[in-house]
Structures are given as structure tokens and as C-alpha cells.
TrEMBL record:
Domain of life of the source: Eukaryota
GO cellular component: cytosol
GO molecular function terms attached to this record: 5'-nucleotidase activity; magnesium ion binding; nucleotide binding
GO biological-process terms attached to the record: adenosine metabolic process; nucleotide metabolic process
Protein name per the record: 5'-nucleotidase, cytosolic IAb
Coiled coil ranges: none
Alphabetical list of PANTHER family matching this protein: CYTOSOLIC 5'-NUCLEOTIDASE 1 FAMILY MEMBER, CYTOSOLIC 5'-NUCLEOTIDASE 1A
Matches recorded under Pfam families: 5-nucleotidase
InterPro entries listed in its UniProt record: 5-nucleotidase, HAD_sf
């Protein structure tokens, strides 16, 4: 319920119920975020979609030390980070009841440095940063078993839901222009809940 309230405050998102139930930890809230168009702006994604991979790689290398603008869920990660910090003085850094993940299809070599430097420039961090270099996110999500994952691309959102993870499609950024037909088709499914 807290997650749904924060989503309503942060952005419009469509939550997909999983097709099967994956057991998630009862003593630790686990939240996974995509990078571009979710935590970060769509600047890099836009460049990739309009100019291709080579231009994207060149741009990321040239702007490695320039933080990305924030995306729609930066504030949610910030709020989770503040909650986590309340447990750190109690010696619960490793056993904190909240754990956050950056799970991105980008590779660490192409844009990982910029993503991590951006988080640091904001005074934020995630407990784990997973750069999958184009691999599907579903198998990794099965391993970390988050309570919810936030993503901007239906391919990854649907993959997470199929493997048993509650997934929220963040309706932000240039990726929406490339998948609008897919989203309309999927919204006919009764397992979808629109939050606005």
C-alpha cells in the first residue's frame, strides 16, 4: 500500500500482477528500478533510439562525468534511502529491512560509470547495481526476488510479470513512443491496474 501511494505521488504507472506467485522475503522490502526513464531522465535513451548504438556509446563516454537529469522515480529512491539510513546507526546496514537495486539492460562499460556517478552526485545509492548488457532482466529478478520492479519498457515489465514479480510500467520518456501500440494491447488484460 505504501508503494502504491508513493507511485501515485511520483508518476503515472501501470502495475502488472504476476502470472504466477514468486515467494518474496517477509522481513525485507526489496525494490528494483530500471535506470533510463525511471531513475534517470530519457536523455541517453533518446539518443540511442534516434542515433543508434555507436552515437550512444560515444556520448556516454564523452559525458561520463556529467550527471544525468533525474527521472520520475528519483524521489522514491531518495525516500527509501532516508528510511534505510534510520537503520544504519543501529548496526543494521547489511540486515536493513529495505534493499534497493538498479537493474538495467545497459552494460557497465557503456553507461554504468555515468549511472553510478549520477547517483553519487545526488547523494544516493542502491544496495546493488546490476548491468545486464542486453540480457533479459527476468532471470536476475528471479534471483533477487524484489517485491516490485519499476521499468519503462514493456518487454522487461512483461518478462518480470511472467516470472512472478509485480512490475510497474513507468509511463515516461522516449521509449513510450516506440511501444505505445503494445501498451494499448496489454491494457486490455484484466490483471492490469492503472494508477494516476
Amino acid at each position: 500500500i505504501i508503494i502504491i501511494i508513493i507511485i501515485k505521488l511520483a508518476t503515472s504507472a501501470t502495475v502488472f500482477s504476476p502470472r504466477k506467485i514468486t515467494e518474496v522475503p517477509e522481513t525485507q522490502l526489496r525494490v528494483a528500478f530500471d535506470g533510463d526513464d525511471v531513475l534517470f531522465s530519457d536523455e541517453s535513451e533518446r539518443l540511442y533510439k534516434t542515433h543508434g548504438l555507436d552515437k550512444f556509446l560515444e556520448h556516454e563516454k564523452a559525458h561520463e562525468n556529467k550527471p544525468l537529469d533525474h527521472g520520475p522515480l528519483k524521489g522514491f529512491l531518495e525516500a527509501l534511502g532516508k528510511l534505510q539510513q534510520k537503520f544504519y546507526p543501529k548496526g543494521q546496514r547489511l540486515d536493513c529491512p529495505i534493499r534497493t537495486y538498479l537493474v538495467t539492460a545497459c552494460s557497465a562499460a557503456s553507461s554504468g560509470t555515468r549511472a553510478l556517478k549520477t547517483l553519487r552526485s545526488w547523494g544516493l545509492e542502491t544496495d546493488e547495481a546490476l548491468f545486464l548488457a542486453g540480457a533479459p532482466k527476468g532471470p536476475m529478478l528471479e534471483k533477487i526476488r524484489p517485491h516490485i520492479v519499476f521499468g519503462d519498457q514493456m518487454f522487461h515489465v512483461e518478462g518480470a510479470a511472467e516470472l512472478g514479480t509485480v512490475a510497474a510500467h513507468v509511463l515516461y520518456g522516449v521509449a513510450q513512443k516506440f511501444q505505445s501500440k503494445t501498451v494499448r494491447d496489454v491494457k486490455k488484460d484484466t490483471s492490469v491496474k492503472q494508477l494516476e
